[in-house]
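User: Please predict the structure of the protein below. I'd like the answer in structure-token form so I can feed it into my own downstream comparison script.

Assistant: Understood. Taking the following sequence of 198 residues as input:
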Amino acid sequence: MWCQGCRWAAALVLASAGCGRRDAPPARTWREPAPDALSEVVSARPPAPSAGPVVSSEPVSWTLPPGWTVREGGGMRRATFEVSVAGVAYECSLTVLPGEAGGLDANARRWAAQIGRSPDGLGWTEWLAGAAAGTTAGGAQLWILDYSRLPGAEPGAPSMLAAVVRRPVDSLFLKLVGPSAVLSEVRDGFVALARSLR
């Protein structure tokens, strides 16, 4: 049996357990914001100012192959060349970027992906090593990449001719995409254009 004092002590404890000080601040718990809430906060910030693409201001000149035409470009694309085969015009872009612009291997891999080729297949290293083509008329290092000659290339699949010219302060990229048969037909003109770059 409980003693009279114990009952009063128990009643006092039970009564005080339900009471709280109204002047005490409520307890606070910090929680990380949910990913959605955090993305709303981040996206509400104004975007950082962009300087735009970095381009080389170095002049570029070339000798146009017979049957080819050219339109001047702007920004990174310095010019767009056209060559017609069987009444169809094919565009060839000339892009100029400062420095090495990622380098030969990285650009060659990216371009392979653009036409659905895997740069991880057998023969990639040998194919890329065989792309060295000497120098241009201006004395710059030149590589010619013919994706139709990449091991595993399927006849009739889209392909690409690309040239990389490494000058002292920038890199020139010449690219032409089309069916392998067309690229084979215009390859000599493409190589002549690439070698003429200065």
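That's the full token string. The chain has five helices and seven strands.
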